[in-house]
Amino acid sequence: MNKAELVSAIAKRADVPAATVDSVILGLQEELVEAITRGDKVSLPGLLTVERSQRSARTGRNPQTGESIEIAAAHTAKVSAGSNLKKAAAAVPVK
Q: What is the pTM of this model?
């Protein structure tokens, strides 16, 4: 599902104009980015949690040359599925 399909589905389910849904999704995106920048954790119970995480510096290897390289420490975004998403995924049979 892409953004346009998501906007359309939410607009239909909530019985609101698609433009309104698009504005809300854009606002959510901006707030998530700002929260991660500040180091805040955003939690939507049952759905997901988004937080900033830190990855330590480490030594890696260039796969082409085999040469050791130093990989700098970095911040990254961590997204964890909530209980409702986990239940939905578990309900789908494995093929």
A: 0.78
